[in-house]
Design brief:
Layout: E1 5-10, H1 16-22, E2 29-35, H2 39-49, E3 53-55, H3 58-64, E4 69-72, H4 79-87, E5 92-95, H5 103-115, E6 120-122, H6 130-140, E7 147-155, H7 159-164, H8 166-171, H9 182-191, E8 197-204, E9 223-229, E10 234-240, E11 248-256, E12 259-262, E13 272-275, H10 276-279, E14 286-287, H11 292-295, H12 303-307, H13 314-326, H14 336-354, E15 360-361, H15 365-370
Parallel strand pairs: 1-2, 1-4, 2-3, 4-5, 5-6, 7-10
Antiparallel strand pairs: 7-11, 8-9, 8-15, 9-10, 11-12, 12-13, 13-14
Helix pairs in contact: 4-5, 5-14, 9-14
Length: 372
């Protein structure tokens, strides 16, 4: 087993820079090559990381760089084609979300991951947040009983950001439906292990905001999808990148037969939990922090280090998980099919909203491989 691995990072100046700065903390990955169209910014990241190779062309990096893995931190419409190109060279891939922006891309990506000797993992950092990992642990211990209902919300006004980064204007706010739902749905799917979304119904709140050119955004302000789970459970996801309001990107709730969870919805509020085994009758909440002595995930034992890296520790935890999957020391619970489970419902919601909220089936990517 290799003791270290050279990594190429594409999108190294923007999103990829967080990964670049965390690679050394894995004691396994080494920043070997950096790729970005921003040549000036690239030199700055190179100086910070000491990466010996830089490129402004991704295909050239794949062809020439001494790398065994790729981290993809580019705009979302480039994720799938870049991942496919790397997988076809049997490189390991850690890709930012979403996995793909169309159903055809999704099928091509699944096929590439299936034929490749490289590992594919989606970098859904919200699944590594401490409260979300604690709830996952509590579910796994059976303390929620049977989870059957959940909500997730990603409320992040970014109209100005959509002008600075035109890809957002097209791929996030330029399509109606849930275009960026994996941060909300990802943790919930891990709280309902073995389940997946069977069908979705999409609806929006109408158009109340215009871009600087005077055009209404194609995406309705609040896009909501109801998700019927294979188990019969129900999940509600709201994504809103247009409404003027304070950010609230980590709103979650979970209901089980023996427990309930409500995340904090504003700065200073606690994450609240009720468990029958701890609290008896359901008439009072408990602060989730009260459970930390028994239920802090092992990954969060060195919290001081994690708080000093990107996305509240998520960038480093993703890389550590990627490392351990490559070394076959842990299961890949963000593999290509889990990535599809988190990505495909949003794509189907875009079709549903075109059909006045019709309930539409979400394909199971595992069937694409089996031919069933």
């Amino acid at each position: 087993m290799k003791q270290s691995m050279n990594v190429g990072i594409v999108g190294a100046v923007t999103r990829g820079s967080g990964f670049a700065k965390s690679l050394g903390l894995t004691r396994f990955f080494r920043a070997q090559a950096l790729c970005d169209v921003n040549q000036e910014g690239l030199e700055g990241i190179r100086a910070e990381t000491g990466a010996p190779e830089t490129f402004t062309d991704y295909a050239e990096m794949l062809e020439r760089a001494d790398i065994q893995a790729v981290v993809i931190g580019t705009p979302m419409h480039l994720h799938a084609p870049m991942a496919i190109a790397a997988l076809d060279k049997d490189l390991h891939v850690l890709s930012e979300v979403t996995a793909a922006v169309s159903m055809d891309e999704s099928r091509s990506l699944v096929a590439a991951a299936n034929r490749s000797n490289g590992v594919y993992m989606m970098a859904e950092n919200y699944t590594f947040m401490k409260p979300n990992m604690m709830v996952r642990d509590l579910v796994a211990r059976g303390l929620f009983g049977e989870p059957y209902y959940a909500e997730g919300e990603y409320l992040h006004e970014l109209k100005e950001a959509a002008e600075r980064t035109p890809w957002r204007r097209k791929w996030q706010t330029g399509i109606n439906g849930v275009t960026y739902g994996t941060h909300s749905l990802g943790p919930i799917l891990q709280w309902m292990p073995g389940d997946r979304v069977a069908s979705v119904c999409g609806a929006g709140s109408g158009h109340h905001y215009r871009d600087p050119r005077g055009n209404f955004y194609e995406n309705e302000d609040a896009s909501v999808m109801l998700c019927r789970m294979v188990s019969g459970g129900l999940v509600k996801i709201r994504v809103d990148m247009l409404s003027d309001r304070p950010h609230a990107m980590t709103n979650y709730s979970l209901q089980g037969t023996d427990g309930a969870y409500e995340s904090a919805r504003a700065l200073g509020e606690p994450n609240r939990i009720w468990l029958r085994s701890r609290n008896g009758s359901p008439d009072a909440w408990e602060d989730l922090k009260e459970l930390e002595p028994e239920h802090t995930p092992d990954a969060w034992k060195d919290e001081e280090t994690l708080r000093n890296v990107g996305h509240g520790g998520g960038d480093l935890l993703e890389l550590l998980a990627f490392r351990d999957v490559i070394r076959q020391r842990r299961r890949n619970d963000l593999d290509i099919h889990h990535a599809m489970d988190m990505t495909l419902p949003g794509l189907v919601s875009q079709l549903s909203i075109e059909k006045d909220g019709a309930w539409l089936e979400v394909p199971d990517s595992r069937m694409w491989i089996s031919g069933a």
